[in-house]
Design brief:
Bound molecules: adenosine-5'-triphosphate, magnesium ion
CATH superfamily of the largest domain: ATP-grasp fold, B domain
Helix content: 25-40%
Number of strands: 17
Oligomer: single chain
CATH architecture of the largest domain: 2-Layer Sandwich
Strand content: 25-35%
Length: 293
């Protein structure tokens, strides 16, 4: 299987390419979002794709969107029913969704039940994460007494997202009630998915949500939901606080680039074949579990 790292739908206007998704305009109120096989780590996109990853992400997100109780952007998961010409691009149908076009809120809404990644780094330096003071002596990957909301400001392409405190979210959003609702939905979705996955032997360590607003100020979950690109999934049976957990997400790629001491600035280093293959396996494994929910 070849990786789809670029798309070009001639019949539609491409609005932008994110790190993973290509976004096309269908009409004023509707977008076609195509998940490619691109992969990024530390906000830099690699040259190599992960074959089939975009389809896996699409199926996982669609499953969660069909289950979640909050409003979301999905209009149709069968774009070929609405856009006849997409049949010319068979490799794209199964990785595309039609969504409501919304005004994106430039905040990554993260909920964490465990201390890892940038949150652990911040905690080591300051004892706090996004302005939240945590008890001393917590280990890497340790479970927090309560899930916390650790937002980040969405960076421009090529820049790193920056952890911010809740008051900064209020300023960015410009409306405290909406900011509180984003926080509450993020924490609630995290707890809900965490509890579902624990039954399957998976720890959902953290997850990132994005939100959009319609013209009337209604809030929707946008982008992707509870995928291995936006979340950390750990194997519960081998989890030990203080150790880097066995995972079903991008951590394998992150660990590889840390191991070669890459400075995390473009250009990205080449990804070896076995890193690509192991990442595909992990994404497939978590897909099987999520689709069985
Ligand atoms: N319904 C929507 N309306 C408007 N914009 C959307 C909608 N859904 C997703 N988007 C935006 O489309 C883009 C999708 O691209 P992609 O997921 O590759 O984003 P990215 O920001 O580069 O990466 P990441 O999500 O990993 O931070 C994002 O900028 C996302 O915020
Ligand atoms: Mg995204």
């Amino acid at each position: 299987m070849v990786a789809v790292t670029e798309t070009n739908i001639l019949e539609l206007k491409k609005l932008f390419s994110g790190k993973v998704r290509d976004v096309y305009e269908v009409d004023e109120g509707k977008l076609l979002i195509v998940a490619t096989d691109r992969i990024s780590a530390f906000d830099v996109v690699f040259n190599e794709g992960i074959p089939g990853k975009g389809e896996i992400l699409t199926r996982i997100s669609n499953k969660w969107f069909s289950m979640v109780k909050y409003p979301h952007h999905i209009l149709s998961t069968e774009p070929d029913k609405e856009l006849e010409f997409i049949k010319k691009y068979p490799e794209l149908i199964t990785r595309s969704v039609l969504v409501k076009r919304l005004k994106r809120v430039d905040v990554e809404c993260v909920s964490r039940g465990y201390l890892f990644g940038s949150a652990y780094k911040d905690y080591e330096k300051t004892g706090t994460v996004c302005g939240i003071k945590l008890p001393p002596g917590l280990k890497l990957a340790e479970k927090l007494s309560e899930p916390i909301f650790t937002p980040a400001k969405k960076a421009e392409l090529g820049m790193h997202d920056e952890n911010i405190d809740f008051e900064t979210v209020v300023k960015i959003v410009g409306d405290r009630t909406i900011a509180e609702r984003m926080r509450d939905i993020t924490l609630d979705v995290y707890k809900w998915a965490h509890d579902l996955l624990v039954e399957k032997g998976i720890i959902l360590a953290d997850t990132k949500l994005e939100f959009g607003l319609d013209e009337d100020g209604n809030l929707y979950i946008i982008d992707e939901l509870l995928t291995p690109d936006s979340s950390r999934f750990w194997d519960a049976s081998t989890y030990i606080p203080g150790e880097s957990p066995v995972n079903f997400d991008k951590q394998f790629v992150r660990d590889y680039v840390e191991s070669i001491n890459w400075d995390k600035k473009p250009p990205a280093p080449p990804l070896p074949r076995d890193v690509i293959e192991k990442t595909v396996e992990r994404y497939k494994a978590i897909e099987r579990i999520i689709l069985s929910l």
